[in-house]
């Protein structure tokens, strides 16, 4: 399915497990329809999963005259995954079942710039894991706002956190004795969208996040595009001007420096829309109360986002775009500028491209990180290295338990 097999992560088998875990037993035909897969491909995937001990055939479903369908069920439902979202001032956690459903969540303060940030992060993860009782964990997924060299290595470059060459994966594996997958947080969201969202029906789509930063997860032929150093999708650092405001990456004039949360707040303060001590919540409140200056700040940001995304769409040709992130809480104000700018800068035959704006919760980032663990057991190209094999072994071991 993938353009480059070496970058392929086979999420279809994970999606089958998730579907059965969430909705109970189903036939091959029902699964093929739900997951938009061909009957032939579904037959082969199910054969593989039964052979691996992860699925079992159950009783036959009632027939309306044709051949009775064999129902399929999970051989295990006990395996769970932990997802962690890391940002500069806090970490968010979720524990999910094999179906991706969030079983519990938490958020804790965190200082990414502290000299003890790794030990602090380990302590908070241990505390969250301990709160779940005696459960079998398949592994830990961590989403960070930056580039990650390889999923299995987890060496992080994250300017928003002040991290350069941080060997996060190795540090967490050594401290927690768990398989650990580290990935850019927007790529993690793209994996979750492929497993549980609109991406189940499309192999090519774009996930865009707005809020503190601006980023994108690019899915091509069913695989998240990581490219040479794991940094594909950093659309927030597309240069908009030569002499624009300073960006967190150290350059001037990046898209994020114009429409990221900090930029919007700075503009609102300069224009007297909000006080010098107020933040993004005050700007949104001002827009909702009818302040035209506040609405204009959002609309201008939306127009710049729309024009830039039109260029990205022309480059990768997605079937649809999903917009996520904490910034979507004020999307109705962004949209006044976004829609006309986006549509008018697209070539005519692309102007009807669907754009979905999904509701947002902070735990969505962490749920995306947990999805990394659930997709990894079927990493056909081995991008996750030893960590993927360890997660797979744990999953198969669970399936073999009575």
TrEMBL record:
Pfam family, one: ROK
UniProt signal peptide: none
InterPro entries in the record: ATPase_NBD, ROK, WH-like_DNA-bd_sf, WH_DNA-bd_sf
Upper taxonomic lineage: Bacteria, Bacillati, Actinomycetota, Actinomycetes, Micrococcales
Name of the protein: ROK family transcriptional regulator
Family: Belongs to the ROK (NagC/XylR) family.
Database matches in PANTHER family: BIFUNCTIONAL UDP-N-ACETYLGLUCOSAMINE 2-EPIMERASE_N-ACETYLMANNOSAMINE KINASE, ROK (REPRESSOR, ORF, KINASE) FAMILY
Organism of derivation: Agromyces tardus
């Amino acid at each position: 399915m993938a353009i480059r097999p070496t970058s392929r992560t086979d999420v279809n088998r994970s999606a089958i497990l998730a579907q059965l875990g969430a909705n109970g037993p189903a036939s091959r035909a029902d699964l093929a329809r739900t997951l938009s897969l061909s009957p032939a491909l579904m037959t082969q995937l199910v054969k593989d999963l039964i052979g691996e001990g992860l699925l079992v055939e159950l009783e036959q479903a009632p027939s309306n005259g044709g051949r009775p369908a064999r129902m399929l069920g999970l051989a295990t439902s006990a395996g769970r995954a932990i997802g962690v979202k890391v940002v500069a001032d806090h970490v968010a956690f979720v524990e999910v079942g094999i179906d991706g459903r969030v079983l519990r969540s938490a958020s804790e303060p965190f200082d990414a710039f502290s000299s003890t940030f790794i030990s602090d992060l380990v302590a908070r993860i241990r505390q969250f894991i301990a709160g779940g009782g005696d459960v079998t964990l398949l592994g830990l997924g961590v989403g960070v706002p930056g580039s990650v060299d390889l999923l299995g290595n987890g060496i992080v470059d994250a300017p928003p956190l002040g991290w350069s060459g941080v060997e996060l994966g190795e540090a967490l594996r050594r401290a927690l004795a768990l398989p650990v997958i580290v990935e850019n947080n927007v790529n993690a969201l793209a994996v979750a969208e492929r497993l549980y969202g609109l991406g189940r029906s499309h192999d090519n789509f774009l996930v865009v996040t707005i809020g503190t930063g601006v980023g994108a997860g690019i899915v091509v032929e069913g695989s998240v595009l990581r490219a040479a150093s794991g940094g594909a999708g950093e659309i927030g650092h597309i240069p908009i001007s030569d002499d624009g405001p300073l960006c967190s990456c150290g350059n001037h004039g990046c898209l994020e420096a114009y429409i990221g949360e900090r930029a919007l707040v700075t503009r609102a303060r300069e224009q007297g829309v909000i006080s010098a001590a107020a933040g993004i919540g005050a700007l949104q409140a001002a827009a909702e109360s009818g302040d035209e200056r506040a609405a204009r700040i959002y609309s201008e940001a939306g127009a710049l986002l729309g024009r830039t995304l039109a260029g990205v769409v022309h480059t990768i040709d997605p079937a649809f775009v999903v917009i996520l992130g904490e910034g979507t809480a004020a999307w109705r104000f962004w949209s006044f500028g976004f829609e006309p700018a986006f549509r008018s800068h697209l070539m005519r035959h692309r102007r009807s491209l669907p754009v979905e704006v999904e509701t947002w919760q902070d735990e969505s980032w962490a749920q995306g990180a947990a999805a990394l663990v659930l997709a990894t057991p079927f990493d056909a190209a081995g991008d996750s290295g030893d960590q993927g094999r360890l997660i797979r072994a744990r999953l198969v071991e669970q399936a073999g338990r009575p």
